[in-house]
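Technical annex, item 7. During the second reporting period the consortium partners agreed on a shared format for inverse folding records so that results from different sites could be compared directly. Each record opens with the tokenized structure and is followed by the designed sequence. A conforming record, contributed by the partner at site C, is shown below for reference.
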């Protein structure tokens, strides 16, 4: 259920997943900075911030029922998929959890955008 109104109830799962993914990306960002092979993770670490920001903005746009929220969610799904792909290249526990979180968020964003994933 929406926090203040019921306007966005039908989108609540996507809002929640976007918020969860953003938080996860920032946590994983910090965790990867502390890995001994941090140099090998340069591109991977960079995408965490991008993905986190996209997820935060998607959550905001959905919450205000913005005109272009679905378009933004489509792009958010693409970025979450890329982040999940990068995460999957590393076998640490936090990277595997990232793969899962980003994948779930991407799926919810595609649903929000009305996209069938092929």
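Designed sequence (site C submission):
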């Amino acid at each position: 259920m929406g926090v203040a109104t019921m306007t966005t109830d039908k989108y609540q799962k996507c809002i929640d997943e976007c918020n969860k993914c953003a938080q996860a990306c920032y946590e994983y960002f910090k965790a990867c900075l502390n890995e001994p092979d941090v140099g090998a993770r340069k591109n991977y670490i960079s995408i965490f911030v991008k993905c986190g920001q996209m997820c935060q903005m998607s959550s905001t746009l959905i919450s205000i029922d913005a005109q272009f929220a679905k378009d933004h969610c489509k792009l958010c799904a693409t970025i979450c998929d890329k982040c999940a792909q990068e995460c999957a290249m590393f076998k640490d526990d936090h990277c595997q959890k990232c793969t899962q979180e980003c994948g779930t968020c991407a799926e919810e964003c595609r649903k929000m955008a009305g996209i069938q994933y092929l």
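The chain has one domain: 9-113. Residues 54 and 75 are 8 Å apart (CA to CA). All partners now use this format for quarterly exchanges.
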